[in-house]
Specification:
- This protein has two domains: 6-155 and 327-440, FAD/NAD(P)-binding domain (3-Layer(bba) Sandwich), CATH 3.50.50; 159-324, FAD/NAD(P)-binding domain, CATH 3.50.50.
- It is an alpha/beta fold and 444 residues long.
- α2 runs parallel beside α3, α2 runs parallel beside α10 and α6 (228-235) crosses α8.
- Strands 10, 11, 12, 13, 14, 15, 16 and 17 form an eight-stranded mixed beta sheet that branches.
- It is built from twelve helices and 21 strands.
- It has helices spanning 17-30, 50-61, 95-109, 172-181, 197-208, 228-235, 245-253, 257-266, 331-334, 376-394, 404-417, 426-440, and strands at residues 40-46, 66-69, 83-85, 92-94, 112-114, 118-123, 127-131, 142-150, 154-156, 169-171, 189-193, 212-218, 270-273, 276-288, 295-300, 313-316, 319-322, 326-328, 340-343, 348-351, 364-366.
- It binds flavin-adenine dinucleotide.
- Flavin-adenine dinucleotide is lined by residues 46-52, 69-72, 77-79, 82, 118-119, 151-156, 173, 176, 198, 201, 326, 329, 332, 368-369, 375-376, 379.
């Protein structure tokens, strides 16, 4: 795969070797020694994304003994791959810089970090069972802690389609990691399948990196929610990110069902977004190729997603990126005595929790995409909120001040003013969880 020229990427930052050296030294000092097999903490955080790192920073600053574990080789979670342009002032959201800073802030506050380690089990009390990727040995097999925060983030929903196992076919998240973290182009001519906040921002990042994004089309008609009408409803919450004023205005009205119905019939077959063709009434049929991706078969569809016979055609591409939304990742909690609620507004099934992010289990907390798909800014706010709950429950005293109930209200306000949402009804999903929490009687 072709390497990206660093200077052609507007989000690229050549790290200052001095900075990096300082950060690594701080990290090394704070790491657990390989000989330790178990150790007691006030808080173990599972997942070093924006939610986990923010909570770790605040609880450590309040005097808590904190350990963050993450399965990746670097902290930061999905934040590390993010690159967006703010249409209001053309500033850049460079996730990898923010991730590095979030880790440094947590370490400076006294939190310890372990990377390349997977938490595979939780036992009440609390014991966190650990395992290591092949080849690494010598780390602790478990950690014991008064409190545990599950901040494991989200995973991509697969899109099974003929040809999806060919080299060159990948999820949109993989394309994001290749482009923004490894600075490698996913392909020369790329087709993006699926239209949502994530696929459009990552298509834009690929375009900025010099990739020819030949089209953004709808998923195969067999995929749930792939019709033009359903797709238009998903584009409404990202209206503020659109490059042109008419799109921002039009996107705002897409929140109304009758506008969606009308637009799905009248919208032009191809719209251009940042110059990339957004083919709102074209679906993928199959990915083509023998040893690798060489093309894709497409078909035009009606507003309700029915294929139009005779409109089949082929497009030559060397990579296809599949985007079918995100699912909250919370399987660790499924082994415990904890209820779950299914909420399409939140992206899937989430553990029932209070608005201050306590679960039904004493000493067990949740934050970030684990409890619903939202942006990194919201995950960070949830991290700060859950830290206040943990500090209170553990009898520590917060240096930052504030109370969890007030922070929970601020979070609701922050959602309203976010520049984009993954789902327009995300607050409705959180309200449903609150009702389930109250009905369940709260913490056991
Ligand atoms: C592929 C993908 C791309 C995304 N791109 C964007 C984007 O461009 N813009 C945006 O605003 N949002 C994006 N998001 C949403 C993103 O999840 C949030 O922005 C934010 O990063 C969520 O923060 P978090 O702390 O909840 O989780 P994450 O940032 O996902 O961090 C969770 C961390 O926990 C680790 N982990 C999970 N399970 C375990 C375990 N058992 N043991 C150890 N470690 C574990 C994960 O590997 C990860 O490092 C994306 C999400 C995904 C899945």
């Amino acid at each position: 795969m072709p390497r990206l020229a660093e200077q052609r990427h507007p989000g690229a930052r050549v790290p200052d070797p001095g900075d990096r050296g300082r950060l690594l030294r701080v990290r090394a000092d704070r790491r657990m020694s390989a000989e330790e097999t178990t150790e007691d903490f006030d808080l173990v955080v599972i997942g070093g994304g924006p939610a986990g790192l923010t909570a770790a920073r605040d609880v450590a600053a309040a005097g808590g003994r904190v350990m963050v574990v993450d399965e990746n080789h670097a902290m930061g979670g999905k934040l590390r791959g993010q690159l967006h342009e703010d249409p209001a002032d053309s500033s850049w959201w460079k996730g990898w810089e923010l991730a590095e800073q979030a880790e440094k802030d947590a370490v400076d506050a006294g939190a310890q970090m372990m990377t390349d380690v997977v938490a595979w089990g939780l036992e009440p009390g609390w014991t966190v069972r650990l395992t290591y990727p092949a080849g690494r040995t010598g780390g602790p097999s478990q950690l014991t802690s008064r409190a545990v925060l599950v901040a494991t983030g989200a995973v991509e929903r697969p899109m099974p389609v003929a040809g999806w196992t060919l080299p060159g076919a990948m999820t949109i998240g993989a394309a994001q990691v290749l482009t923004n973290i490894h600075r490698v182009k996913p392909g020369h001519r790329v087709l993006v399948v699926g239209m949502d906040v994530l696929s459009l921002t990552i298509a834009r990042a690929m375009q900025l990196a010099g990739v020819d994004v030949v089209g953004i089309v709808l998923p195969p008609t067999t995929v749930e929610g792939s019709s033009p009408r359903a797709t238009l409803s998903r584009l409404a919450p990202m209206a503020k990110l659109a490059p042109a004023r008419y799109m921002r205005l039009g996107g705002h009205f897409l929140g109304w069902p009758w506008v969606q119905a009308l637009a799905s019939r009248l919208v032009p077959r191809t719209l251009r977004m940042w110059g990339m063709p957004l083919q709102l009434r074209t679906s993928l049929v199959v990915i083509q190729g023998t040893d690798q991706v060489t093309g894709a078969a497409l078909v035009n569809v009606t507003a309700d997603g029915t294929p139009i016979p005779g409109s089949e055609r082929e497009v030559a591409v060397d990579a296809v990126c599949l985007a079918n939304g995100l699912i909250p990742l919370n399987e660790l909690l499924a082994t415990l005595d904890c209820s779950f609620l299914r909420s399409p507004d939140l992206g899937g099934t989430v553990p029932v929790h209070s608005d201050t992010l306590r679960t039904q289990l004493d000493g067990m907390y949740v934050a970030g995409n684990t409890i619903g798909i939202e942006s990194a800014k919201i995950a960070e706010k949830q991290g700060a909120l859950v830290a206040l709950s943990i500090i209170d429950d553990l009898g520590l005293s917060s240096r930052r001040g504030g109370d969890a109930a007030g922070a929970a209200l601020d979070l609701v306000g922050a959602r309203r003013t976010m520049e984009f949402q993954f789902d327009a009804n995300v607050q409705r999903g959180h309200d449903d969880v609150q009702r389930a929490w109250e009905k369940s009687g709260g913490r056991a």
